[in-house]
Structure formats: structure tokens, C-alpha cells
Fold these 2 entries.
Entry 1:
Amino acid sequence: MGSRRLLLSRLFQPRNLQAGGGALADGEPSCRSLRLMLQAGLIHPAGPGCFHYLPAAVRALEKLVKAVDEEMREVAGQKLSMPSLSPAELWHKSGRWERMGPELFRLWDRHRKSYCLGPTHEEVVTELVAAQSNLTHKQLPLRLYQVSRKFRDEPKPRFGLLRSREFYMKDMYTFDASEEAARSTYSEVCGAYGRLLDRLRLPFVKVQAATGNIGGSMSHEFQLPADIGEDRLVLCPEGHFAANVETLNGEQTSCPTCGGKLTQTRGIEVGHTFYLGTKYSSVSNAVFYSAENKPLLAEMGCYGLGITRILAASIEVLSTEDSIRWPSLIAPYQLCFIPPKRGSREEEEEGTALLERVYDDVAEALPHLAGDSVLDDRTHLTIGKRLKDANKLGYPFVVVAGKRVCEDPPVLEVWDQNSGEVLFLSREGVIELLSKVQVP
């Protein structure tokens, strides 16, 4: 069993926990999440607005995608994967090749055919559905989604993963038989987004939003209130009304429902939903056959969730100035085990062997946490130094073989990072506490 332990010294996570951040292009504005992610070795700059996601960040992203998949299954979402490379003629047909302007990454193949790197996939998915020539009303609603890399040629990439040029997004496209059915789908998917953000314990607001380059007749954003946010929001204190300022005509200061004074805040957009109607289905002739066997245009919606942006935004809003705090569900590792310092009395009293046994017992008793536990084997450092590092990296639980490990029976310290509590528990107590931990 011991050979399968995950040793901190072997992880590729180039930490720079003492320094003020890490290498970033000159003049690129920083923020808490970017600074903490660079310090913790979660990401590394690869070019303006592009980052390497290092193993710990990939673990967090994979957990987030699993949680998203669970919520998408609840609303009958079917996952697919579409090419990033998108033929220009589709974008010409919808009129967005010109409208998107320089934000679109454009390229040519050797035959001088034009393409773009997809920032979003409305044209592509509508063309895919239009190619199914015998689609009937019985097959609707169709709810297709993917999680993939998207590309936007941001004029000024900033704040790390909050505004980058290459990012992960979950985008869903829905096809319904009527406007009424499409609006019902809209409310179901919005509900799924709300549940996901609740599971992550993120304080979000759903606000009325502009339809922008995507189009359609109704749109909402899911925003995390934060000082660093680039969107200005107005909120009714009673919860009757919330909107992005860009949707309002002039300065609206009172709630249209209750007349209460609206408060202003800034937000980070993590999700965006659009009711599209037949805007794209009419261009590609995406039709289905009704019960009377008449071809009708599908009513569409599209729904985006910024996967890498949720990762950075959650660190932005939950963390302290110098320590990461994760939504527990997506922490790269749930547990860090800290054995005694080499040569200490606790080590001589078998503290290390005991802690390693508890590590193995947890993996055996709670198999879902087997790959989620790290052993900080840097025993040349004091427990205090390693505990400080663990605090900065934000493991939800840290199990320490401290002074009381020499008692009979031995007692372990367990730091619950999210509540700030320290518990003193027996081996059985540790396993019981950790049995409540959820991972997607």
C-alpha cells in the first residue's frame, strides 16, 4: 500500500509560496486569484492571455467538469465534442464573421480556405442538427453540450483566467418544438446552473443581461459579486430585480417591482444563458417534423458556463489575501497528511509510522478519497512550516501528527480549513470525520 502513497515532494507543482506571485508579463494587471494561482503552482504563463494548467489545477478542473456533467444529466443533456476549427462560410451565413470583428481568431489552410477558432458554437451545432433530415417532434427537446477550449483574441487579456484568450467553457445548445417548450428548457437549464453554484457554495446573483454578439430575445448572466469584477450590476435589496447596468436605459435607481432603492455592485460573470428563438435555425434550416408531418424551425437556446473562469472566480471570492480557499467539492486534493519532523520526539515515538497507517486506513475505508490524499514527506521542515504551506494551498483538511501523537491512545490534530476549526481525534475519529467529505 505504501508505494501508492502520493508524496508531496513528487508532485509537479512549482510552488513560489514566499514570493509576491510569479512570472507575469510586464504591466499585466494582477488580482488575488492570479497571484495565488501563480504562487501555488496551479498555472504558469505561456504567452499573453494563455496559461499552462499544471496538474493540481487540472484535477480541480476535472472535478468541476464532473459536477457540471452531473447537473447536465439532470436536465437530459447529451455530451458531444465539436471541432475548434470552424469553416468561415458558416459564420458568413449567420453574419457573425463581420460582426465579431478582431475578437475572432482567423486562419487559412493550405488551400486558402478560411476558418476561425471557435469562441462559441451556435453556427456549428445548428448545421449539425440541420443535417439530420428526418428529425421529428418526438426527438425534441434536444439538449446538446460540450466542454472544450474556446478562443477569443482579447485586446487586453487581464486578471489571469478571468479574461484570457484561450479558456475552457461548457456550452449547451437546445432545440425545442415550440416557444413555450423552449422557455421551459430555459428555466430548467438556469435551475441547473443555480444548483451547481449552490453546490460550490458560491454566492451568485442571476441578472438580466444584454444579448450582444450571440443574439436572441432574452438573456441572463450568473454573476459572482466581487470588487475585481468587470461588470456593473444593480440589485434590489429585496431580491425582486437584478440587472447588468448595460441593459438599462439611463440611470435606473429604483426597483421596478417594489420601488426600493437599487444597490450597485461589481460582478464576475461565470455563466450566460440566451433564448435564441429561430435566429440560427432559420439560417441553417434546422427543421423538425411536427405531428402533422409539417417541417417547422426548431426554437433554440444556448447556455455557457466558464469552466476556467469559475475556477479563478471561486478562488477570487473565497480566498484570503495569502491563502487559497477552494469550494470543497473541487479542491485538487481533499487531504494533506503532515508527519513529524525528522529527529523529533514524535518521530522517535512512531508518530510517522502511525500517520502513514492512518493515511492507508483512510484510503482503504474511503476508496473515493484514495487519490485525494497527499503526504507531505518534507520531514526536514518543521510541522509549523508545512502547516503554513498547507494553509496557503487550501487543502480542506490537514491531518497532523503533533505532540499528542505520543499519548496512549494516540491523538491526531485535524485542521478543517474552511471552518478554521482544529479537532483532536483518534484514528477512528479521523475516518468518521472524513467519511462525510464529498467529491464529484
Note: Residues 101 and 153 are 10 Å apart (CA to CA).
Entry 2:
Amino acid sequence: MDAGNLSVVSEFVLLGLCHSWTMQVLLLLMFFMLYLTTVFGNIAIIILIITDPHLHSPRYFLLANLSFVDIWLCSVTTPKMITDFVRENKTISFIGCMCQVLFVHFFGGGEMVLLVVMAYDRYVAICKPLHYSTIMNLQKCTGLVVTSWTIGFVHAMSQMAVIMQLPFCGPREIDSFFCDIPLVIKLACIDSYNLGILMNADSGVPAMTCFIVLLISYTYILLTVRQSSKAGTSRALSTCTAHITVVVLFFGPCIFIYVWPLSITWVDKFLAVFYSVITPLLNPAIYTLRNKEIKTAIKRFRSYYIYPKGNI
């Protein structure tokens, strides 16, 4: 690319979620509390799984990785959004914008694959219980987690390889609270319609594929346990319901943003907030609040570390 096509835009302007000062103050307080709850809640889950030997199993190893990814996924966009609520000029440097694009798709892509891996773990546990310890050993789990990170990285780099070559020489207002592929491409000084479709497909097709695979896998699990005992069916249904809820909450907004042909600004903003701020909080909560093993582990943690005298 010749020198005339190089970007001359040094920063972008984020228009944010709203323009009302009163509403921005309310949103600041709300998102600040949500962010703290998300970070500390996920850290607590990771610490609990690491310190409790009873939770040293593939299922909780994967859950700890999900919590780790969710911490980073919300941290890419939320702190910047919170600080912008008290700033008059909501700008972000060109490099900062590119970093947001990179890490949102890195952690987002990695989480998509990780959710598929967690579905596979539940499939083996419910449909092939006698072979579970052999199939889902530590080496296999580690390999699957590394694969999820690798796919997320490759997906993010494929996006960056294209967007970093685009010329940005004029418009610099992004009608959102963070930089994302569809919005940034619109600012390029070229006819970006076809490129926008291609880049959206690069995100939308993997999201749709993972979503369909997940729904098929959970449907198969439920059909497999129909002939089992009533207790087994009830437990499998409870597990799958929690997992399917997470899948819908995470993939629904992503599919709408990157696959749906119509773009409605306020809807896109709401969905972007949902999958980047709300979902990282809901994911671990849904997986843990109805989990008896986690509740028992919390009691053990409290009695051993917080109230140790009670054991004497």
C-alpha cells in the first residue's frame, strides 16, 4: 500500500451510550458496580476451584477458564466506558481502538470455542459416564483449552490483518462505547460495503456454527437420557438448561450484530453492552448458583479459611 493510503487519523471519538449528563452518572454507578461484581465474582470462582481439591475435575477446570476469559472480556471495554461517562471528550487513540478490536474478538472467539468444549464435557459425562475419566483427562482438557485460545487468536488476527490495512483519513466518530469491526470499517476512506459483509461473515459464521453445534449437542444429550431414570433425566435437564441459557445469552447478541442484515443503532448498543458487560457476570452465576458442589465448596472454604476456629 502506497503512502497516500496510509491512515492519517490519530484518534476516534466514541459517542457513547447517551448524551444526558444525569443518565451518564446513573450508568456510571451501575456499570461500575457491575464491573466490580463481575471481576471479583469470577476471581472468587477461580480461587475456589484452585483451592478446593473436590473441584479438581475437568468440569470445574473448564469453568475456571471460562471465568478467566470473562474477566478479560469485560475488562477490554468496560473500564474505558466507565471513565468516558465523566469525560467531555470521549476519544480513543487509533492504536487503542485497534487493541479493542483485537482483544474483543480474541477473548470472544475463545469463549465461543470454550463453550463448545464445555458442552462436549457434559456430553461425555452424561452419555458416556463409564469412559469419562479416560476421555476427559487432564492432558485432553488442557489441549482443548489451548485450542480455544488458539482459535480465538487466529480469528482476531484475521480481522486485524484486514482492518490495519484500511485507510482512515476522514470521519472518526464511532456511535458506540467501544471500537468494533462493523463500526470501524464504516469510517474507512473506501467503499466498504462488500468488505463489511465479508468481515461480519468472518465473525457471524463461526458464531452461528458454534451455536448450532451447541444446540444439537444438548438436544442429543437430552434425547439420550430420556430412557434413563427419572432422577438422571432431571439432573441432565437441569444441567443442560443452565448451559443452554448461557449459550443463548452469549451467542444471541453476537449473531444479531454480525449476521442480522439490518443495523439499528440503539439495539446494537444494547446488545453490545449485554455480551460485553452483562454476560461475563451472568455466565459464572448461572453455572454456580444451582450447583450443589459449588455451594458445598463455598461452605468448606468459609469454615477453613474465614472461620478456622470453628473447626477446633
Note: The two ends are 73 Å apart (CA to CA).
